C-alpha cells in the first residue's frame, strides 16, 4: 500500500466538458492501462480551487483494480476523505461499478480505492479521478503533479500488473479577467436599440469573486433602456458564475457578481439594449467599462454600436384642400407615404421636422397616431416643430393622412419643406403657405423735430376672396417714439365705414363690423388720415407699421388654443405684416452727404434713398430738388411745385426761395440773384444747382473730388 503524504481531494465532474478539455499528457507505463489528464491554471492564493482531472482507460481485464493517489507537499484537499464520500473524488462511467468501489484508506493525505469486478468487466470501464476544492500553499511548486498508481489483481489474489504516472493537473497563474465584444451593430434613434454582445471571461476558476462590480457607461444622448434591462436581471455562465444588474442610472449600468464559478474557469455575456435620443451624434457608440475586482482587470472602452442613417423615398398626394396662411391653425398637409431603402423594422425611429414657424397641431400623441399608419408617436419637441415616431410593425411603407399643422405670424411664405431624420433621412415639400393679403403704403417724408406729422395711407388687399371673412379687428403697431395722435379713417371697398378706435400710444386697435366685408369679391381696406406724435429723439430713417388683428392673424380665434402647444399666448396677439408709411428727416441743423452717381445719401449719419442720383453737368453738381430740401431741413409741406409755370418754391422759417426751370434767376424773398446755370427737368424730376440753393438758406457746401462727394452743413 502506497503511503507518501496526507492529502484530500474532491472534484465536480461534467463529463461532456471534460472530454473537450483533455490536454495531451498521456503516459503508457505498461499495456495494462492508459493515462490521460487535463491541466488547469490556478490562482496563486490559498483559496480552495479546482485542478484538472486524471482518466484511467483501456484497463486490462482483472478480478480487481486498486487505485493509489497522492498530491505533492503543500497541496491539500480542503475536506478529508471519508468512506461515504469517496464517489466525490473517484468515479467510473458505470454507476453500478462505482457502488462496488471500496475505500481502503483515506486519511486526508492520500487515498487507496479497490474496484471489484463483480458488477462488470474493466474492459468496458474507465476511471476518473477528480480534484476539486484544493488548497494550494504559497510555497507549493508552480507545477502541480498528482502521483497515480494502478494495480490489477487476478482471480488468485496475485498482482497481475502495476503502472504509475505523475500527471500535471495544475499550474499557477495570475487571476485575470478579459473583456471582448462582437462586431458593432448599426443602431438609430429610438428605444430598444440592441448593441453588440459583451463577454467577460475568467482565465481561472474563481477569478471573479462574489461582490465584484462592473460598471458600463454610455456616451451622452444614449440611455439604458429600462423597458428591456431592469435591476435584478441576471447573466450566467456555464459553471456557476453569475452577474446581476444592481443599478441602472440613465447612462450607467452596474453589474455585481452574485455567484462565483465552480470547478472550471467561466464567462458570462450581456447584450445591452439602449434608448438613443434625437440629437445623438452619428458614428461609433463607445461604451466605457470599469471593474472593481481583485483579479487583474484592465478598464477599457469598446465600440458596441454605430449610429447611422438610411435613405427614404417619399410619395406625396396633392389631396389637401386647405389653403395654408400665416398665423393659422388646424390646417391639413398633403397625404404622403415613406418608403425606406430597406424594410422598416419594429423599433426603428423617425423624426418629422417642419420649418421655422410651422408647428404640429397636436397636444395628444394618440391623435397623431390616428393619422399615421405603422408608427407610434413618442412625443413632440422643439416647440412642436418636430415629432418623434417609432415603427410599431414590420412594414415596407409608412402612411400619413392629412396631418394637421399650425403656422405662426413669423412663418415664411412659400413651400413647406419637411425633413426626415434619425434612422431614415430625406426632405420633401408637403404643402405651401400663401399670403392672406398684400400690404402697401405711401411713405411721405416727415421731420423728426415736428410735434405731429401726417403719415401715408395703408392699403390691405385680400389675395383671394373671403380671406377677411368674419374679421372685426385691425391692429396697427408703430415703433418706439411714434404714437398715434388721432383716429384715422377706414374705408372698405371704396366706402368709408364706421369703426371703433382704441389708441394706446404706439398701438391702435380698429374694430369694424364683419358685415362690411364682401363675400363675393376681393376686399380692399384703406386706412388713411394717419397722424403721428413724434418723439424729438427719434432717429429712425423709416417708420414701419406692423399689422395684426384677426383681419390677418387667425390665431386670435378662441379655438386656436385648443391644442396645448403655446399658440394662444405666444402668437395670437402678434402682427403678421409690416409696411413703411413714412420716412424721416432730421429737423434743424444737419450735416448731409451725397455721392455723385449714387441714390443713397445720409443726414446726420442716418441713411436714406433717392429716386434720382446726383450728377455733374458743366462743372456744376445737380441734385433732385426734393432731396436738397430734405438736406436743408425743409419738409414736403414747404416744397411747392407749379407745373404750369415750371417753378419751384422752397420755404423755411422766414425765407422763401424760388427757381424756374430754364432760368438762371434765383429769387430770395423776392430779391433776384443770378446763377451761372439754370434748373433742369430730368425725366419728371427738377434738378437744381445745389450750391446756389444751399447758400440761399445759409448752408455751406463742400466738395471732395477724390471721392466725388458733396457735403452740406447747416
Keywords:
49% strand, mainly beta, 714 residues
Produce a short descriptive summary.
The chain is mainly β and 714 residues long.
Number of strands: 64
Strand content: over 45%
Strand order of the largest sheet: 30-33-27-25-36-35-28-32-31
Report the C-alpha radius of gyration, rounded. 49 Å
Helix fraction, binned, reads: under 10%
**Shape type:** elongated
Q: How far apart lie the N and C ends?
A: 133 Å
Given the structure, what is the number of helices?
Answer: 6
Structural class: mainly beta
- Low-pLDDT runs of 5+ residues are 1-30
Mean pLDDT: 84
Largest sheet geometry: 9 strands, mixed
Description:
By secondary structure, the protein is mainly beta. The chain is 5% helix and 49% strand. The strands form 13 sheets. The protein has a nine-stranded mixed β-sheet with strand order 30-33-27-25-36-35-28-32-31. Strands 15-24-23-17-21-20-19 form a seven-stranded mixed β-sheet, with no helix packed on it. Strands 3-13-12-5-9-8 form a six-stranded mixed β-sheet. The longest helix has 7 residues, at 15-21. The model is unreliable at 1-30 (pLDDT under 50).
SSE topology sketch:
Blueprint: H1 15-21, E1 23-27, E2 34-37, E3 40-43, E4 53-57, E5 64-70, E6 75-77, E7 90-92, H2 95-99, E8 102-106, E9 110-116, E10 127-130, E11 134-136, E12 143-153, E13 159-173, E14 177-181, E15 185-187, E16 190-202, E17 213-217, E18 222-224, E19 234-236, E20 242-249, E21 252-259, E22 267-276, E23 283-292, E24 300-307, E25 310-317, E26 331-332, E27 335-344, E28 349-353, E29 358-360, H3 365-370, E30 372-373, E31 375-381, E32 386-391, E33 395-400, E34 404-407, E35 414-422, E36 424-433, E37 437-441, E38 445-447, E39 452-454, E40 458-462, E41 473-477, E42 482-484, E43 489-492, E44 495-496, E45 500-504, E46 507-511, E47 524-528, E48 531-534, E49 542-548, H4 567-571, E50 577-585, E51 591-595, E52 600-603, E53 606-609, E54 615-617, E55 620-624, H5 625-631, E56 639-642, E57 647-652, E58 655-660, E59 665-668, E60 671-674, E61 680-682, E62 685-689, H6 690-696, E63 700-704, E64 709-713
Parallel strand pairs: 3-13, 15-24, 25-36, 38-50
Antiparallel strand pairs: 1-2, 2-4, 4-10, 5-9, 5-12, 6-11, 7-10, 8-9, 12-13, 14-16, 16-22, 17-21, 17-23, 18-22, 19-20, 20-21, 23-24, 25-27, 26-34, 27-33, 28-32, 28-35, 29-34, 30-33, 31-32, 35-36, 37-40, 39-48, 40-47, 41-46, 41-49, 42-48, 43-44, 43-47, 45-46, 49-50, 51-52, 51-64, 52-53, 54-55, ...
